[in-house]
Design brief:
Layout: E1 4-5, E2 9-13, E3 16-20, E4 23-24, H1 33-37, H2 43-53, E5 58-62, E6 68-69, E7 72-73, H3 77-86, E8 91-95, H4 102-111, E9 121-123, H5 124-135, E10 140-144, H6 147-155, E11 159-160, E12 167-170, H7 178-189, E13 193-196, E14 202-204, E15 209-211, H8 214-224, E16 229-230, H9 236-246, E17 253-257, H10 260-270, E18 273-277, H11 284-288, E19 296-298, H12 304-309
Parallel strand pairs: 5-8, 5-17, 8-9, 10-11, 10-12, 12-13, 13-16, 17-18, 18-19
Antiparallel strand pairs: 1-4, 2-3, 6-7, 14-15
This protein binds magnesium ion (MG).
C-alpha cells in the first residue's frame, strides 16, 4: 500500500516557526484509525497524536551519515547513544559495508568517543555469515572478500575454499583482482549459488563516492544467468536479525538512517517504523521527490531523545 504524505505545515514552537512533514505508512502503526480521521484538521494536533502512537522498543542505527560522517561524529550523536544506554533502550548499529569486520567498526566508534562494543554492531557480512550457518550449513564457500573479512568467515566456522565451491559470496572486496573475478565467473557458470552481502552501487567517502558491489552483482548475474540472494539492507532479513539481537519484536523497532532506498526502504518492506535523518545523503528535495516515506523525518539523531520524551521541538 502506498504511504500517505501530507504537505509540510508550519508550527510555531517556542516562538519559532518550524516546518513539520506529517507522513504515515499504512503498514506502520503511527496513526490509529481515529487519528487518521483527524488528518485534515489541525496538523499540530496530528503532531501531538504521533508520539504516543510511536513505539521505541529498540533502535537500528545506520552509521555513515547517521551517527558519523567520514571520521567525525554527527553533533549530538554521542549524547544520543548515551541517552539510549541510560534509559535501557536497546540499539544496534547496522551497516551494509562488508569490507570490514565488526571489530573495525567498534574500534572506529570507540575512537570517536561512542560507548559501543563489537556486540553492538551488525554488518551485512555478519548477517551473511549467520545466514550461511543457519541456512547453508556445511556448504563450501568461495569468498570475494578482504583478508580480515575472510578471517571473520573462517573464525565463524564457514568452510572457505579456493576451488569447487557450492556458493560464491560477494562482499565489498576492496582487494578484488581479475583472478578472483574470473574464478567466481567459472564457479557460477558451473552452477554455484550466488550470494551477495548487500546491493549498494556506491559507498560514500569523505568527499565523493567509491564503486561498491552493485555493478559486480549485475555483471555476474548477466554473465552467468543467475540471480544473487542479497542479504543486507533493504532485505528485511537484516532487520529481523537486528530485532532478534535486541530481543525486540520487529514491529516495535525503529530504523534510523540517512538513505531512503536502503535504510527507509528496508523498514518499509518489513512494515516497521523509521526515522529519516537529514544529516547525510538525503536532503529535503530528495525526500519530497521520493515515493519511499519514513515515519518521521528529523534533522539528525540528536533530535530523537526529544521525540521519545514527547517534546515537540525536534520535529523538522
Ligand atoms: Mg548511511
Amino acid at each position: 500500500m502506498a504511504p500517505v504524505v501530507n504537505k509540510p505545515v508550519m508550527l510555531e514552537i517556542d516562538g519559532k516557526q518550524i516546518e513539520f512533514i506529517p507522513t504515515y505508512h499504512p503498514a506502520a502503526t503511527i496513526y490509529n484509525k481515529e487519528a487518521r480521521k483527524g488528518l485534515d484538521d489541525t496538523m499540530a494536533l496530528v503532531a501531538e497524536r504521533l508520539r504516543p502512537e510511536m513505539r521505541f522498543g529498540g533502535f537500528m542505527l545506520d552509521m555513515d551519515g547517521t551517527i558519523y560522517k567520514g571520521g567525525n561524529p554527527i553533533p549530538g550523536a554521542r549524547e544520543f547513544i548515551a541517552y539510549l544506554r541510560k534509559n535501557g533502550i536497546p540499539f544496534v548499529f547496522l551497516t551494509n559495508n562488508s569490507s570490514h569486520s565488526r571489530d573495525f567498526y567498534s574500534d572506529k566508534l570507540a575512537r570517536m568517543g561512542f560507548d559501543a562494543s563489537k556486540d553492538d554492531v551488525l554488518t551485512s557480512m555478519t548477517a551473511t555469515i549467520r545466514f550461511l550457518i543457519s541456512e547453508r550449513f556445511g556448504r563450501r564457500v568461495y569468498p570475494l572478500a578482504t583478508p580480515d573479512v575472510v578471517k571473520e568467515m573462517e573464525d565463524a566456522g564457514i568452510d572457505v575454499v579456493d576451488d569447487d565451491p557450492d556458493i560464491v559470496v560477494l562482499t565489498f572486496d576492496t582487494t578484488i583482482t581479475y583472478e578472483k573475478i574470473n574464478n567466481a565467473f567459472h564457479f557460477l557458470k558451473k552452477g554455484a549459488e550466488f550470494i551477495a552481502t548487500h546491493p549498494d552501487d556506491v559507498c560514500p567517502t569523505e568527499d565523493f563516492y567509491d564503486i561498491d558491489i552493485g555493478p559486480f552483482i549485475r555483471m555476474f548475474e548477466q554473465m552467468c544467468q543467475t540471480t544473487a540472494t542479497i542479504i543486507g539492507k533493504p532485505n528485511r532479513l537484516m532487520l529481523e536479525m537486528a530485532a532478534r539481537e535486541m530481543g525486540v519484536r520487529p514491529e516495535d523497532t525503529v530504523m534510523v538512517g540517512d538513505r531512503l532506498y536502503t535504510d527507509i526502504a528496508m523498514a518499509d518492506r518489513a512494515g516497521t517504523q523509521s526515522i529519516l535523518v537529514l544529516s547525510g545523503e538525503t536532503d529535503r528535495s530528495m525526500l519530497d521527490g521520493s515515493e519511499i516515506r519514513p515515519t518521521v523525518a528529523l534533522g539528525s539523531v540528536a533530535d530523537i531523545p526529544d521525540l521519545i520524551e514527547g517534546r515537540r521541538r525536534p520535529v523538522l
